[in-house]
Amino acid sequence: MRNPLLASLLLAVPTIAAADPPPEKLVIATWNVEWFYDNYPGDNYSDLAKQQSAPSRADWDWKLAGVAGAIEKIKPTILCLQEIENQRVLFYLTRKLKQDYGLDYSIAYIEGGDYFTEQDVAVLALSGLTGYSVKRQTREMFDSQEFYNVTKHLFCEFEWGSGADAQRLMLLNVHLRAQPEQVETRTKQARLIRRWIDGAVKAGENVVVIGDVNTNETFETTTKAGDLGTLRGLDTPATDDDLDDLYAHYKGESKETHLVHKQFDHILTTPALSADAPGKSDLVFQSITIRKDLVVRGKQQDVDHQDQYWKIPADERDVSDHYPVVVEFEFKR
Description:
This protein is an alpha+beta fold.
């Protein structure tokens, strides 16, 4: 006779799902999709968010199709998005990607705290996603005034393979404070991020900090005390906790990622991800590209989007004011 107590105990023991098998290559992309807001302003509260919503269903369908079409050309394993409205637009996007292109993405999203723009960040994943979260300052950190809240961020954990071949990745998608005069605020945000990831970086784990950093620094002009330099860890005497800026490996002509000729979008990694570790299973960096070609429409690039995005004719309107930045890694076994 079956023991009912034993049966109950067996049901209470959680099963551990096997990790996803590694894809042929790991493609990670970041893209600020510029006010990815549908045409329904009823779930927006700020005047700015309502003003930036798509004016009509036809306009929203145009934007949705343009973003989905660009993503299909990249087919990223992991896609980090900035300036999305909410989980509803992510549902529309993933549904379109699945129906039109057969790409079945999982959504990682937690509502942020930017109540002025109501913009958020999100991550879409084809495989490997095991969890996601956000972090906050402690009271002691807040009282020190050394840090500033990162209202738009998302931590994601990934894992592929098993045993000695298992590969794990911590990814942090960020959208830092905009405007040139906000460099001190961004530096404090960068200092907070460094506090959050310090343990994983020093442990030599695979860590990626990615997104729209809104810095006025470039890879070539990065200073130790600046916002980008602080985010990379260059502001400390130690060098073993520094993050690599993958633009160091860029082979293209221009590193601009925005129509105002700025290098706002960056992908930073621990050295373990940008260099091959001989004699063991590893993720090995292959390439970095900026896909401006997927964004610019019509005869020429848009000059400006502020307050006139929806006034530009649809066949000339660029999909976004930012360009996707794409990196590829190989799973070395």
